[in-house]
Amino acid sequence: MKTMEFDVAVIGGGPAGLSAACAAREAGASSVVILERDTELGGILRQCVHTGFGLRVFREDLTGPEFAERLVKRAGELNVAVEAGSFVLSVTPDRRVRASSKRGILEVAAGAVVLCMGCRERTRGSLAIPGSRPAGIWTAGAAQRLINVEGYLPGKRVLIAGSGDVGLIMARRLALEGAEVLGVVEIAPYPGGLIRNVVQCLEDYGIPLLLSHAVTAIGGARRLEWVEVSEVGPGMKPIPGTGRIVECDTLLLSVGLIPENELSRAVGIPLDPRTGGPIVTNFMETTVRGIFASGNVVHVNDLVDNVSDEARIAGEEAAAFAKYGPRAVVRFLEVIPGERVRSVVPQRLAAAGQDTITLDLRVTEPVEDALIEVSAGGGRLAVYRRRRLRPGEMVRIPITRAQIDSVPWDRNKVYVSIRSDGRVG
User: Fold this and answer.
1) For residue range 252-305, what is the model confidence (pLDDT) as tens digits?
2) pLDDT of 376 over the 80 cut
């Protein structure tokens, strides 16, 4: 077994891992390595051939591969070491990373570790849709890779279950490739992805979106032949007698993403049940000192630019930890999701080293004329007004060091809640 020493070890070579590695080198880390299980860097970006990436980070409208190429090039310029084809087996609290690589078992002794493993798609098994098990059932991401990387069309008559962003984008992609997209079926009364994707990928192509509907049965022998689509009522339960048969040869599932946190669990990092990712501070540090996390392994992001923002913080802080040791923090404040707030990241705040902290939150339901209130100790810290909020769109609000410092010392909780306010202009 070969052992190597690095200031910072980054697990995952997608947009988060690349951004974190570059930030760590720019912040003064003398040696940084990326451990990536695939044979190439770039992660999911390599199969996202549509534009919309990099508008904030690079101030250009790039495709996924173009965005990845910029990061890979920068990592090369900064002499970031890369161990591609390396599957990480374990991480220890003292920051030793063991991986199975092309050269055999590899161990990295790191001054700091950044977790950037990304997320995975929910499959049919997590939905418990009854019926047979024919060919032609794909997750949206797998179908995206099949078309954009492998060059194969998964089917000709396609129905999409779930209105996550990947599913919406794949509806357009399939239509452009000549497939008949019969519709997108969404169990919730509102779309799960960005409104811009609903407009640009469905409405612009005449693809119907069926809200408050679900796939309730699957039929076919060797190949998918039909699915049953039913209306859902209270509790998102199918309404008897509303089912109708849709003949199709392909079903794509776009029903949510799950942060990849097997390594996080194994090293003893507590996970937030709301996000499925590690509990982190505003420095993107987990509860295990010297182990940081960023990107979709922490919480599923809408935009790759947001991922890069988080990863930059994680990389800079990992470099500082490796060089100087733990940051001195007098106290942390716990962030509690309140009314109409599904989740908030980061979950712990410290007024040190950052003049402004960005809170990323998701709502439980659509809210019009929204008033976002951040409070602590019985008093308001900040209030923000938004015209509309949607569960599929992340909300980002700033909190200043002065606002955190104003929280009484006998209080250690900050609450974020949302209500509708007709005065929003």
Assistant:
1) 999 989 999 999 999 999 999 999 999 999 999 999 999 999 999 999 998 999
2) yes
Which CATH number is 353's domain given? 2.60.40
Question: pTM score > 0.85 for this model?
Answer: yes
Examine the domain organization and report whether 308 and 228 are in the same domain.
no
Q: Give residue-wise pLDDT tens across range 179-190.
A: 999 999 999 999
Nearest alpha carbon to residue 158 among 172, 150, 166, 211: 172
The answer to whether 98 touches 90, Cβ cutoff 8 Å, is: yes
Domain boundary among 275, 298, 327: 327
Tell which of 277, 296, 327 closes a domain.
327
425 falls within a domain: no
Q: Are 99 and 192 part of one and the same domain? A: no
Residue 145 forms part of a structural domain = yes
Shared-domain flag, residues 130 and 208: yes
